[in-house]
Design a protein that fits this description.
Blueprint (H helix, E strand, L loop, with lengths): L1 E6 L5 H10 L3 E4 H11 L1 H11 L12 H9 L2 H25 L5 E4 L14 E6 L2 H12 L3 H10 L3 H5 L4 E4 L4 H15 L7
Parallel strand pairs: 1-3, 1-4, 2-3, 4-5
Length: 198
């Protein structure tokens, strides 16, 4: 069974993903693959340089992500061009992961299930939910970015209602880390078919 784990920026996806890993579940982070694929995947690098030239390659031969992010944020055409290179290769890696995974169910952690209309790929979807203020505080603390910058990212993502509309399970991340862990364990038990309400 393939489970999609999603949530907006700063919602706590990574923490929840780690809890599932501790429970023996294989978890893949699509965002992490997407961020690193231009440096780790030769095919992606070749297509990127062919399309974008060497403008975004630094002296060490790595992609200058900050420069690239700033450029594509304001240029829809370049953004679409980059996505057309990255998305199929990320999907390829996810399919390889799900084919090779031996855990009873596997989790694909991905921020944009609603936005990419890819909910059909998953048998169940878990949404990590929290209010916007919480998102802004967590993400700006983690990434060292301004609250305005985080807010502009939130505005490009699905709303809470949109995201929650595709959920089979909603984890409200509004309390302690221990509370979050207990919520993950409850969902894990439900996915294993254990009736915890009896």
């Amino acid at each position: 069974m393939i489970i999609g784990l999603t949530g907006g920026i700063g919602s706590g996806k990574s923490v929840v993903g780690n809890f599932f890993t501790e429970l023996g579940i294989d978890v893949i982070d699509a965002d992490l693959i997407s961020r690193n694929i231009l440096d780790t995947n030769k095919k992606a690098r070749k297509l990127f340089v062919k399309s974008f030239g060497n403008e975004f390659i630094d002296k060490k031969g790595n992609v200058n992500r900050e420069q690239l992010r700033t450029t594509i944020f304001d240029d829809k055409e370049k953004k679409m061009s980059l996505e057309s290179i990255i998305h199929p290769l990320v999907r390829e890696e996810i399919i390889n992961f799900t084919d090779q995974s031996k855990s009873i169910y596997k989790i694909v952690m991905v921020p944009l299930i609603y936005e990419t209309q890819s909910s059909n790929f998953y048998e169940k979807i878990i949404v990590i939910d929290c209010d916007e203020q919480e998102q802004i505080e967590r993400a700006s603390k983690r990434d060292g970015k301004s609250k305005e910058n985080i807010l502009s990212i939130i505005k490009t993502q699905a709303s809470r209602n949109e995201r929650n509309s595709i959920a089979d399970f909603i984890i409200l991340n509004d309390s302690s880390i221990e509370d979050l862990r207990l919520k993950v364990i409850q969902i894990h038990q439900k996915l294993l078919g254990i009736n915890i309400d009896a």
